[in-house]
Predict the 3D structure of the following.
Amino acid sequence: MSSLPEPGTEPGSGRPDVLVHRFRSFDLPFHASLNDHFTILDPWTDSPPDEPAHAFLARRAGRARALVCVGPTTLPADTLRLLPSLRVVIGTSAGVDHIDLRECRRRGIAVTNAGAAFAEDVADYAVALLLDVLRRISAADRYLKEGLWLKSGNYPLGSKLGGKRVGIVGLGNIGSQVAKRLQPFGCDIAYNSRSKKPSFPFPYHATVHDLAANSDVLVLCCALTEETHHVINREVMTVLGDRGVIINVGRGSLIDENELVQFLVRGELGGAGLDVFEDEPNVPKELFGLDSVVLSPHRAVITPESFEAMRELTVSNLKAFFVNEPLSCLVRLE
């Protein structure tokens, strides 16, 4: 008598099923790497053109125990309910606000992210944005190229980074790398996080408001959750003050964007470096003409090196899951 295949394993292949969940417009650049170890199920390539994705999931992916969620592809509860055998969601982005974590917690589905793979490159970008805002590098570049150096003289002075009090919101993979990079500049680091982190020597503030009141700069690195939505609000911006700077490499909705625009336009905030926005790719046009603002189209994580690290993390987590070994970058679901 032949033995039955393991649940979630393609009969005859010996390789476990892995469902790829993505928007049609999103590609999985390391599809071939996964094919070396797993049977990949992809509704956009493996189903008839006229078959809806949810029908493919119900017909073909019911036995899949692992899912790779590509980028910010939304993974709601109704999709998860089509996957009764699912036990792990492997995220390929740093944030997980697009995944229904409440449903995952209810079902006992583990969730991982790719924060560790992206941490160094995002931290580099955050520091670059901060330097640009303080020293007005992009604004000075425009000034020169528009011929204003000849016509109007020297560009106004910027501000130094050394000695600035920098408050980091979210001292996780990315936030800790930001701190590591800013210390050699002579910055005074403090932080707010879900809880105090005894392994770090920096002062801890229990609220973002208190952190802002004791900072010249806020760098936002935390995840977007119900608790952190609009955590940078009118009150926080007010205490940060007209010389304060906000750098956001987290998610756009960490900030009340309408309030931020008004504070910047009125000069009630010193500046901002923004890689993320509330309604991407729509960016408030009021910010375009402000020399105190540096804008970036959600590119902080995008380097060949970070994509390779993300590939390695994704494959290693899938391998670990199927042999019941610990997963890296587990997301807390409490």
Q: What stands out?
A: The first strand starts at residue 17 and ends at 21.
